[in-house]
């Protein structure tokens, strides 16, 4: 019979080794972010010459790169449009897909199964297959503004959201909903008063994932939005490129830092909900 003490020591050794390995891997992923922050404080002439060197008295640019980047990209307006698109899109995705998932989970027939399969299949369709027709359709229907592009994001984000909400909803008992209906609640009131609070873990995790995707998305806004009037943060940063491939690397590094800062803060505050919500939506049921 194995000695429990030896097994415990072996387990601690393995855990320690895994901790060291994954810590080193995390440093590899963090290194580009650290270098981006460092280069944002260097004069642009020295970024290409010594990209991995720390700023010195000669190469230190202070906050001039940030000031230039904000002026050149009209960053304040761009970040405002990014916030509008992200908030409206995430709200629309969470509301519509959670109601759809509730219907799929509670009404078991061929129609709901077909809707569920369409949502699942949509996750494997490459964006490149539809982007040209999508651009034309968006222009014809007037979906090329920050207030209408959330409808397009709803179409692309519905697959994952419906999958997660449906998986969690199937694991929830129906007795509470039946009691509410017996007491006179109509479907809408039952959803908002009973079902919505139950779905809170999946709301949080799905909202985090959708926010990170929409905030960092470049291609869809670039194809759909009227760029003469509206630019999101990724698009505005891209416009720092000058003629013949010239780039103000200092300003670009500074704007990249400002672009990822809100989403990093948001993720750090909400990361504990991701694993629990994903597991609840994908494993249960």
Explain this structure to me?
It is a single chain. The protein has helices at residues 4-39, 44-47, 64-73, 75-106, 110-122, 131-141, 149-170, 175-182, 187-198, 200-216, 219-224, 233-238, 249-270, 272-282. The chain is mainly alpha-helical and 285 residues long. It has 2 domains: 4-39; 65-282, Orthogonal Bundle (MetI-like fold). Helix 4 (75-106) packs antiparallel against helix 5, helix 7 (149-170) runs antiparallel to helix 10 and helix 8 (175-182) runs antiparallel to helix 9. The longest helix has 36 residues, at 4-39. 30% of the residues are buried.
In short:
By secondary structure, this protein is mostly helical.
> Residue ranges: pLDDT <50 for 5 or more in a row?
281-285
Top-tier CATH class of the largest domain? Mainly Alpha
- Distance N terminus to C terminus? 39 Å
Strand content: under 5%
- Note the overall shape: flat
Largest sheet features: none
Classify the secondary structure makeup into a structural class: mainly alpha
Q: Which architecture of the largest domain does the CATH hierarchy give at level 2?
A: Orthogonal Bundle
Helix content range: over 70%
Structurally, the number of domains stands at 2
Q: What is the average per-residue confidence, as pLDDT, rounded to a whole number? A: 84
Q: Radius of gyration over alpha carbons?
A: 24 Å
From the 3D structure, determine the CATH topology of the largest domain: MetI-like fold
State the CATH superfamily name of the largest domain: MetI-like
Q: List how many beta strands DSSP finds.
A: 0
User: What is the number of helical segments per DSSP (H or I, 4+ residues)?
Assistant: 14
H and E string: HHHHHHHHHHHHHH
